Structures are given as C-alpha cells and as structure tokens.
UniProtKB/TrEMBL annotation:
It holds the Pfam family Pectate_lyase_4. One of its GO terms (molecular function) is pectate lyase activity. Residues 2-76 form the Pectate lyase domain. It is found in: Secreted, Cell wall. This is Uncharacterized protein MANES_07G107700. PANTHER family: PECTATE LYASE, PECTATE LYASE 18-RELATED. Its main location: secreted. The keyword Iron-sulfur does not apply. It comes from the Eukaryota. The keyword rRNA-binding does not apply. Keywords: Cell wall, Lyase, Secreted.
Length: 159
C-alpha cells in the first residue's frame, strides 16, 4: 500500500490515514510505505514480508500501535528511505513511533535512535477516542479468520 506516490507531490503533506484490523500475509513490502502525511496503524497482523513491513520516507510520520509483526526470512520490520522533497533543499527520511507492538520470530523493529519519537504525531490530535486491543494470539487468530475476501451467500431473491 503506497501512500504518497512521489517525492515531488508536496501537496501530500495533508494526507491522514488510519489502517486497522488488517492481515498482511506474505506481501513483499509497503504495509504501508508512506511519503509525507501521517498514518496511524493499529491492531494489524503483518506476517512474512519480503523486504520490510512498514516504511517511512520523506517527511512521513507513522504511529504503529499494538500491531503484530511476525518475521519470515526477512527480519527488518521498519525501514526509512531518505528522499528530497521538491520544495526543500535537504533530503529527509520519515519517522516511526512504535507503542505496544509485538515482534515475533526474530522480527527487528529497527527504530531510529536519538531522534524522532517525540516528533511523531499522536492519534488523539485527530480523534478523541479509539478502541484498540492488546496484540495477542486471539487478535492474530481473529484477523486471520475474518479479514480479506470472504465467501458470502447471496440472498435467495438474487440467485
């Protein structure tokens, strides 16, 4: 999931996205990859990614909360790409704040040290309340069973 397609799209600074209760299984990357904007990720289950799970690039802010990251062969959960915004002189990466996330099977958060956490927005700036669950085996099971495409029976009058 690419949010903010190009570093020349400086108008994307206004993007605000919430991603919750998703199951990303065996995807290569971009759960999501963000340029600019702000993304709140919570109660997702990301498993067996190919390059990285989540990426913050030019001026992005990602608040990752109570997610489950289960590594396969690749262990690096968070990635940072440095890019130059079209209206800036200096190239920058994005920032990721992780709170309450669980890292399984050797998944490595790879959070930046010494800078950033305090600069990432807090979801309460955009909505006063939200309900999240602790990242647990039961959450993992529910997401595997209930997310994505589901076979649905059509009502009798439509058959």
């Amino acid at each position: 999931m690419l949010i903010g397609a190009d570093p020349s799209h400086v108008g994307d600074r206004c993007i605000r996205v919430t991603i919750h209760h998703c199951f990303f299984d065996g995807t290569r990357q971009r759960q999501p990859r963000l340029r600019y904007g702000r993304v709140h990720l919570y109660n997702n289950y990301t498993k067996n990614w190919g390059i990285y799970a989540v990426c913050a690039s030019v001026e992005a802010q990602i608040y990752s909360q109570c997610n489950i990251y289960e590594a396969g062969q690749k262990k690096k959960t968070f990635e940072y790409y440095t890019e130059k915004a079209a209206d800036r002189e200096e190239a920058r990466s994005g920032l990721i704040r992780s709170e309450g996330d669980v890292f399984l099977n050797g998944a490595q958060a790879c959070l930046l040290t010494g800078v950033g956490k305090e600069w990432v927005f807090h979801p309460s700036e955009y909505y006063p309340t939200w309900t999240y669950e602790a990242p647990s085996d039961s959450l993992k099971e529910i997401l595997q069973i209930c997310t994505g495409w589901q076979p649905l029976r059509r009502p009798a009058e439509m058959i």
